[in-house]
């Protein structure tokens, strides 16, 4: 773990903060309106399409690149990468053209309950955002290539710069252009990101630009075959996303936006943790597993495992204790009703609980990938998505909007249990660590919930003060619990930080 891993982590934390600020500003101008719903549906459709088709290749590209680099050399692997770039751009361009010709066929699927006028507005938004599919994928692939050349923080810094630009543009343009300010800011941000990535690639003398209609399938084939096992879970995940948004659009106007606002906090935190798992932990565990060093493998995994429980305790604890204060601080801008804010608060709490099994699932999946059991990870990832789809379809009429965090929680508990059973190195101490970690989260959340019910009796308390008070209470709880249960949270945290600093 290098020193730049710390910078990478900080940059991703800042990006997480910028995305939450963007959503907060969006809530000020657009609230939980039909326009905001249509933006979420259209943008969600583009992202779903991108992930379903290119997600597995983007995820596995770096590993395959390094393997080919050692096998055939730098010059030959760059030729294959250039072919891959042309292939991706060609297929993406064809899909963009098809969507632009037949947009109504797609919008009727993602919003089946919309009337003729609403469907026309949604179709217009899809047409506006469809070209971003190509631009975004170009940036994704360029980022993957830079990562393969051990350049991590430049793409992250560029992404942070574009996120800040997007915030400024929304503030400036939203009063005049309404919801279309989001599209304008997004496009300008993607174009700036492309320019910054291109400059960095020129500095490294990496040339990918060529004829987009000229590529060799033999050059493309290794990357596709390597990513093939992950296509099923990725595809099912995107089907699940479409099903969820389609169901949400039938419940009521604004429900799609409420879900989007609610998930942002837990999703952002999980995204940061995932990046740390794959960037820092995966190569380290792979190294120890290949050397058959089971002792070091378990030591490094348990350190990250305990640290993950520590971080998730803060996330679940604060959203169990004072979700209203957090939601009010970020979203109470005058354009969202009290009823909608209450739903967002409740949903944020339930989604924070879903972060527990999701984090365990991803962390255990990293273990399986590092021990050459990626197919098992892919299989149970597919199982989790199927369970989510079935629960959402069968129970949305009974539980309404709360079906979605419930299905997320249950499906990943089941998947995590199976992945835990397939842990490559048997260790009874690991089971005890898991029980302690779950007990820590549950007890902290209960204590925070109970204390905040008492605090809520005191009126007109500043939201920021309540949040700081809850963070302090979580810290005190963890110190007490660590002493009683001997979880060694403080030692674990300091050990990880010292290793990052030491490089």
Overview of this structure, please?
- Helices cover 86% and strands 0% of the residues.
- With 503 residues, it is mainly α.
Order of helices and strands: HHHHHHHHHHHHHHHHHHH
What is the helix tally?
Answer: 19
Quote the beta fraction: under 5%
Mean pLDDT over the residues = 82
Q: Which geometry do the CA atoms define?
A: globular
Q: From the alpha carbons, calculate the radius of gyration and give it in angstroms.
A: 23 Å
Structural class by SSE content: mainly alpha
Kindly list the characteristics that best describe this protein.
503 residues; mainly alpha
Question: Summarize this, please?
Answer:
This protein is an all-alpha fold. The protein contains 19 helices and no strands.
Give the secondary structure arrangement, pairings included.
Elements (H helix, E strand, L loop, with lengths): L2 H28 L3 H39 L1 H28 L1 H8 L5 H14 L1 H18 L4 H25 L2 H24 L13 H11 L3 H21 L3 H36 L3 H28 L1 H9 L6 H33 L3 H26 L3 H19 L6 H28 L7 H23 L3 H14 L1
